[in-house]
């Protein structure tokens, strides 16, 4: 039995990465690793479903005991991935997905070089600002802080294997599903057909072009 793949999904707050994951999970068997965080729940968030909401003291105890696969501080709060469940599920052949920020993603790649990293980004800064303000859960200062943080995250897009532009949700979900299926096939150890090899190369070339386009849109 082949091991499951570990796929990391990152993107600025407001990129829609969580929505893409939720849509993908409806039609595909996957284990979504629930992160630990020290921040307070947002309206509608459920402990143990969206995050494990814990104290900073409890979080630091898990770090000290080696119980975190990765962790990082983001906008004044700690976020991290519990190690045990990830290892347990991939050994069973189940694909595991993480929704984490860019520093955490880099740490996962160091700990698990075989991990596949995918970055989700909206088509423009204007769209991102609109999505953040539409939530109505954060004041203008917090929104501006998140926009600044978004630029920092986008600067790290080069460390990712694949990129998804979330302009149209259905297309973004389809693109993500294609990436997962192709990455799983590539990691299976089986010989790829010429058609499969060509598609893998096409996806990598497309992501390289998208990285350049995103940097031009957001950073130049």
TrEMBL record:
Enzyme kind, highest EC tier: transferase
Enzyme nomenclature, EC number: 2.7.4.8
InterPro entries, sorted: GK/Ca_channel_bsu, Guanylate_kin-like_dom, Guanylate_kinase, Guanylate_kinase_CS, P-loop_NTPase
Localization, UniProt: Cytoplasm
Residue stretches making up the Guanylate kinase-like domain: 4-181
Domain of life: Bacteria
GO molecular function: ATP binding; GMP kinase activity
Family listed: Belongs to the guanylate kinase family.
Protein name: Guanylate kinase
């Amino acid at each position: 039995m082949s091991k499951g793949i570990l796929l990391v999904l990152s993107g600025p707050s407001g990129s829609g990465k969580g929505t893409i994951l939720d849509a993908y999970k409806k039609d595909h068997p996957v284990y979504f690793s629930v992160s630990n965080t020290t921040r307070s729940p947002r309206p509608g968030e459920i402990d143990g479903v969206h995050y494990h909401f814990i104290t900073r003291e409890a979080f630091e105890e898990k770090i000290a005991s080696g119980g975190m696969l990765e962790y990082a501080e983001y906008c004044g709060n700690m976020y991290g991935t519990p190690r045990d469940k990830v290892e347990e599920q991939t050994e069973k052949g189940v694909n595991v997905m993480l929704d984490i920020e860019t520093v955490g993603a880099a740490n996962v790649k160091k700990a698990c070089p075989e991990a596949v990293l995918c970055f989700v980004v909206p088509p423009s800064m204007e769209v991102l600002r609109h999505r953040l303000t539409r939530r109505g859960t954060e004041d203008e200062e917090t929104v501006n802080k998140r926009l600044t943080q978004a630029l920092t995250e986008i600067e790290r897009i080069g460390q990712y294997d694949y990129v998804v532009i979330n302009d149209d949700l259905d297309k973004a979900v389809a693109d993500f599903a294609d990436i997962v299926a192709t990455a799983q096939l590539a990691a299976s150890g089986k010989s790829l057909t010429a058609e499969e090899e060509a598609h893998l190369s096409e996806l990598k070339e497309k992501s390289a072009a998208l990285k350049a386009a995103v940097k031009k849109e957001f950073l130049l």
